Amino acid sequence: MTEPEASAVERSAISKVSWRLVPFIGLMFFINFLDRTAVSFAGPNGMSRDLGLTASQFGFAAGIFFLGYILLEVPSNLALHKFGARRWLARIMVTWGIVALLFTWVSSVEGLYVLRFLLGVAEAGFFPGAILYLSLWVPARHRNKVLALFYVAQPLTIVIGAPFASLLLGADGLMGLAGWRIMFFGVAIPAILVGIVAWFYLVDRPADAKWLTNAERDWLTGELAKEEKTKAGKHNILASGALLNGRVWLLSFVYFGLIYGLYALAFFLPTIIGGFEAQFGTKFDVMQKGLITAIPYLPAAAALLLWSRHAAKTGVKPWHVGLPALIGAVSIPVALFMNSPAATVAVITITACSIFSALPNFWAIPARFLSGAGAAAGIALINTVGNVAGFAAPFITGAVKDATGSFQVAMLVVGGFMMLSAILTLVVARQRDSVPDAAAMAARSA
């Protein structure tokens, strides 16, 4: 094959993967993030009142999801590696859809805690599994672009999901249910339906993709095999080694700070907006609150794509993660010291842009030195440690709010954790050539 022919095959293969797989996996991620954050819309729109929740209890209910998620994260991703993404991702999605549906009939604080925990158990492994799955379909030089297209589903979940949730919340009395219960029902059903479709639609690997030509299959398979061989020779980290690798743990703590900011914002932004009436004397109906909640996330989606495009052109560097983390660390506490709703939402928009600019570029880093079972275990570990913040952020934010009577101090804590992420990316930059290979680890253990 001549060089121009190889280049044409490369372009067509990556284009087909980008259009055939990324939108569908992105749709799954969209539903995933909407289901796990639906409680943030339900809380200030009747659920907290009906169940008698304090801010601390609401934060604990939001966060306990991640305890169940964490317990099964690494085993779930190893199961995906063993059984294949098609079966495992479809199974995860149908399971969490069934659990999400049960929120429609929750009747007590304790029941809410149990269902949030079980939702985490059901969802465990989906996000790192999706990252791993997409990483197995494209060579490293195209991975950043593909992951950015996938990750844009997360901010768009709020852009589209907040007004959608508001419409469902407005259906108060339908089937004799409160609006927040209708909302839970409406966001759960798509998970079950799309999970069933995923079983038939997804393909585990390029070699099995009938929608690729023979030349495209051969090119993708060959390029990915060469990368695996290179990683095996230079940075061969097995599953056990990945769990003990220093760089993996550094990246885990970087991710912790980013996720702390993400979920503090995701779970409490609707509540903060709901408090504008008492703080500034303004009044918004349910749909207006939903639209205001969506405002920061549309610019965030654009910032994600533009920043990822820059990173793809120059090569992903730690500062592609660290600089946005630094900006987010400064902006998020500043937001709640603004003197109007517009100014508060404007600064929160800067925070959202920062967080979402960092995240897809972050996930391009571990895939560079992890492969096979090591990639499954390492990516799951990073996501697991990071998602400890998913429990800590809403719980600590709610507890600090109850203790102080406002969100200002809680957002200072959020800024501190994001600053930690910014600092640790500098350490990652210095450690990038220090990943031990399998032979070195074996020699040390001998």
From TrEMBL:
Pfam families the UniProt entry points to: MFS_1
CDD domains: MFS_ExuT_GudP_like (cd17319)
Keywords: Membrane, Transmembrane, Transmembrane helix, Transport
Transmembrane segments: 17-34, 54-72, 88-107, 113-134, 146-170, 182-202, 248-270, 290-307, 319-338, 344-363, 375-397, 409-429
Superkingdom, taxonomy of origin: Bacteria
Entries under SUPFAM superfamilies matching the protein: MFS general substrate transporter
Protein known as: MFS transporter
Organism: Xanthobacter oligotrophicus
